[in-house]
Design brief:
Elements lengths: L11 E4 L2 E8 L4 E4 L5 E2 L14 H8 L11 H12 L29 E7 L2 E10 L2 E8 L6 E6 L2 E5 L36 E2 L5 E2 L8 E4 L4 E2 L7 E5 L3 E6 L13 E6 L4 E6 L5 E3 L5 E2 L4 E8 L2 E5 L1
Parallel strand pairs: 12-14, 13-15, 14-16, 15-17, 18-21
Antiparallel strand pairs: 1-2, 2-3, 3-4, 5-6, 6-7, 7-8, 8-9, 10-11, 16-20, 17-19, 20-21
Length: about 300
């Protein structure tokens, strides 16, 4: 009859005395005869008798690749996965990752695959990402639930804020210690709060003096003799007739390599820069009497030698 059968096709069969008309009913897999002697052709049975091929079986056969001869063996499948990942660590039973082996992710392009760790906590979503881009390694942490995510990035040889985030170097009870800076340190704003144990100096040492090595704005409308607490201050006079006196080194030992004081007259009748003793030398072309709106910068050059500049 054939694989697909004959649907509503009539044929003439010469059988002795006359003709027999045959037709095929696809719904019942029946070959019908006008003599009443019908025949049913069953579907083929796997491992059993031959028979007709169902539509579902035909679709399954059509899905087999051209020239395919057999399924991949287990060894072939494992080898394909090893080749794709570049390692065999995934084969470990249990978690599926052998922590004793290096895990290599690579695609051979400028941007490597990204290793992501995600965590959800208190309605916040956190990500830790690690990847390479154009030979530079990146390690990024980010909180995604805010409109403006906070994040930090380690990139090559530096780290800092990422996506306009803010990076805190320690908390109220935590901080850095034994840190060395071999290049210039710059900041848009520098603030000392609380009661620090000391100030990090350029050579990596800690200065425990009470004054802070950062410029501070102060208003002083009384006569004073400068002391170490005035170093790196912007001293402003706003009223009256004021005198600021530079002391002898034997009384106040300002460091010749690290002393700068800025004096402003912002409304006082006059501000005078005086010396405690005639042995103190003031060099420079700037005068020592400041009228309203004037500014002078005091820089110590030697034991009792100061430079007065604008």
């Amino acid at each position: 009859i054939g694989r697909a059968g004959i649907d509503n096709v009539e044929c003439n069969v010469i059988a002795g005395a006359g003709n027999t008309n045959l037709s095929y009913d696809a719904a019942t897999n029946t070959v019908q005869s006008d003599t009443g002697a019908n025949a049913t052709i069953n579907l083929a049975v796997a491992g059993g008798n031959d028979g007709l091929l169902s539509g579902a079986d035909k679709s399954k056969i059509d899905g087999i690749e051209s020239n395919a001869t057999a399924d991949q063996t287990a060894a072939e499948i494992i080898n394909a996965i090893d080749t794709e990942l570049g390692n065999t660590s995934w084969q470990t039973s249990g978690s599926g990752l052998d922590t004793t082996q290096n895990l290599v992710l690579t695609d051979g392009d400028n941007l490597s695959p990204t290793f992501n760790i995600q965590n959800s906590f208190a309605s916040d979503n956190y990500y830790l990402r690690m990847y390479f881009l154009n030979s530079i390694g990146y390690l990024e942490s980010e909180r995604l639930s805010d409109d403006a995510p906070t994040a930090m990035r380690f990139k090559g040889t530096y780290f800092g804020a990422y996506l306009n985030g803010i990076v805190d170097l320690g908390q109220s009870n935590l901080g850095w210690r034994d840190a060395w800076f071999t290049r210039k340190v710059t900041a848009g704003e520098f603030e000392i709060i609380g009661a620090p144990d000391g100030i990090l100096m350029a050579n990596g040492s800690i200065n425990t003096d009470t004054y802070v090595q950062a410029k501070q704005n102060v208003v002083t409308n009384v006569n004073i003799t400068l002391d170490l607490n005035d170093n790196y201050k912007r001293i402003r006079a706003t009223t009256g007739t004021i005198t600021y006196t530079i002391p002898l080194n034997t009384n106040v030992a300002f460091d010749p390599d690290d002393t700068e004081i800025i004096i402003y007259n912002l409304g006082a009748t006059s501000v005078t820069i005086a010396v405690e003793d005639p042995s103190i030398t003031l060099s420079g072309s700037a005068g020592v009497v400041l009228s309203s709106g004037d500014k002078r910068t005091l820089t110590k050059l030697d034991t009792d030698t100061w430079f007065v500049g604008y």
